[in-house]
Amino acid sequence: MSPSVPLQEMIRAIRSARTQCEERGVIQRECAAIRAQFRQSDNGGRSHNLAKLLYVHMLGYPAHFGQMECVRMIASPRYSEKRVGYLGAMMLLDEKQDASLLITNSIKNDLSHSNQYVQSLALCTLACMGSAEMCRDLAPEIDRLLRASNSYIKKKAALCAVHIVRKVHDLGELFTPAARSLLAEKNHGVLHGAVVLITELCERNQETLERFRKTVPDLVQIMKGLVISGYSPEHDVAGISDPFLQVRILRLLRILGRNNEGASDAMNDLLAQVATNTDSTKTVGNAVLYETVLTVLHIKSESGLRVLAVNILGRFLLNNDRNIRYIAMISLQKIVGTDHNAVQRHRGTIVDCLKDQDASVKRRALDLSLALVSASNVRSMMKELLLFLSSCPPELRAQAASGIFNAAERYAPSQRWHIDTILHVLTTAGGDVRDETVPNLIQLITNASELHCYTVHKLYRALLTDISQQSLVQVACWCIGEYGDLLLRGECQETEPVQVTEDDVLDALETVLQSHMSSPATRGFALTATMKLSTRITDNVDRIRSIVSIYGSCIDVELQQRAVEYNALFRKYDHMRAAVLERMPVIEKNSPGHTNGESTGEPIKDIQTLKVKQGEPLLPQQPANQVCDLLDLLGGSEVTLQPIPAVGGTAPGLFTNTSSTTGGDLLDLLGGLEPAPPAPAPTVQVYEKAGVALTLSCEKQSDSGLTVTLTASNSTDSDISSFTLQAAVPKSVQLHMKAPSGDSLPARGAAKVTQMVVLNNPNKVNLKMRIRISYSSQGSAFQDTVQIDSFPGLSAAGH
């Protein structure tokens, strides 16, 4: 290929290359020829060569050696060369390149050129790649061109001024007078540029915003002219007169009317006119209507106009275009808190969107449906949501279950309905619920004393049907252990009576213990339930003793520990077994200073003070009477009782998969180990913003080991989803983050998310931690970072 081939021939040769290697060879030969011609002082084909180089750049090959040629061609007096030179500057140069400073003077000269097309080239280049220094130098020239008589130049100058304002905020005051005068123009291009410039100025400066609020009547007149104007072939798009300008004006009105009643009143009639007269059968009309709705919802509009806006969004939900349905649900999600009744009118349409095939539409419909649940419609909405839960995709099941739990807890018409709803969810999606669901349901069942018989019968039948749902099985085992005597009676008015024998109940629990689907935590529930039945049945105590003794050599340490403790109760303390395994009292949720349901706040406070005063002399007195200590553990005395913080209910403390304080104390008492319980780790709040709070507590495991517990809560009125915590520590510190308790924070602190972080600091460096908090709320994503420089309860020397 000769060095002087035209651009078309080069493109044809590159496209005909069969391999990438062949293509590179063609480009390298052509670039070498272009370099050689760039070195010639008298080169008549400079624009031709630069055009070929720009095509090479578009293919992704290096073309930086053409930057200086762009500078020389911009300074050329010929328009054909200026055009290619400015195009090359926009593609090959940016504000970081030193060569960009060389064209500042050329741009300034061309801005004063007599040819409007040369001026246009300079304006476009400055708006594309002008640096802050260039903008400061050339801003007076742009302000001069904004006042020119040529509409073509004013349109380009307005858009260039937008770039300058974004680069240098202080220059906004320079363009304010000219921007206001542009609103009197008739040319749509100039008006469009003026509206964009005014919008940028108002967003940057509050004083400018107040000044431009006086232009609301002018903007209303321009908008009315567009709405009622007849057919104009120059501006018509699908029957709508210049929809691009209409959308820009509506966005500007939204900014000007926000938190201002006077400006809002001036545009109410216009917005009603646009909302009623715009054709909604075309995408163009829907775009204008959507901007109208956003403007109505953001300003201080009349109540009737807001209802009209919500109805427009309701019509969007019936549109065949999924994108329109999606943005409609996003908008409704944002206003459901302020215009709840208006959104409720479209509840049926929103629920129908749960059946949409698109996953994004289905997710938004779920969020909106959960937000629409209220005390008046909780039964009908829950019926639809439970139906959706049974067929929803796996990625939405956890979110749906969490939302149903929160709504049921907030609006449950009765305790029986509440229990039935949660059991239905556990039966359908028991593997996708949050960790705190089990203790929360246990607490609910404990408090509903009149429903104990009904609940244990229903859970027993569910256990016989399916043991794969771990959360359901855990609750069922707990209820059978607590209320097994009610199950064996067979007398239940609320449900169909079932005759159950002692062997049937023990067979069901043994099935759970032996099933490969049961997790270690579930086996712990089943073993504890079996042990509790030893005081509720009479004929099969030896069988229970045999079951418990088998797990005394279990490979799972937690299960083995419990079995050893229960065997000790049978062998050494059989006279106390009935008292130890008696029915759990009513559990009070989230009540610090409560143990086993009994308030011990003030006595504990006094005892802790006594321990501080007496110190070591108090400790040797502990093992003197282990029977009293055991009674103290069960709430029978107030001698040395320590509070156990209730996290989602106290009852599961005896059989969760983690180390239990109660279980540890019982083992210590039976084995004669050190009885002094550890003091609770101090907790401090390290973050609080926009209703989201994060607390931190530390527990020192060894000389270099540390366990940090992060607890997040949400005090806002809207649920938070996709909640994640990320942590960073110095390089010499080893970090291991365990799985969080969940990824959603219900509104008003209904539940919390806990994240445990294990740190190992072998070099004893000064410990610091940076935590990144990310979550989504009302369709918007939030992210923030907090630095932790000190950890509660740790000495500076240790960490």
TrEMBL record:
Localization of this protein: Cytoplasmic vesicle membrane; Endomembrane system; Golgi apparatus
Keyword Nucleotide-binding attached: no
Gene3D superfamilies tied to this protein: 2.60.40.1230, Leucine-rich Repeat Variant
Membrane topology listed for this record: Peripheral membrane protein
GO cellular component, as recorded: AP-1 adaptor complex
Keywords attached to this entry: Cytoplasmic vesicle, Golgi apparatus, Membrane, Protein transport, Transport
Gene Ontology process terms (BP): axis elongation; central nervous system development; intracellular protein transport; vasculature development; vesicle-mediated transport
Pfam family, one: Alpha_adaptinC2
Residue ranges of domain GAE in the record: 679-792
Signal peptide location: none
Family statement: Belongs to the adaptor complexes large subunit family.
Designated name of the protein: AP-1 complex subunit gamma
Protein source organism: Dicentrarchus labrax (European seabass)
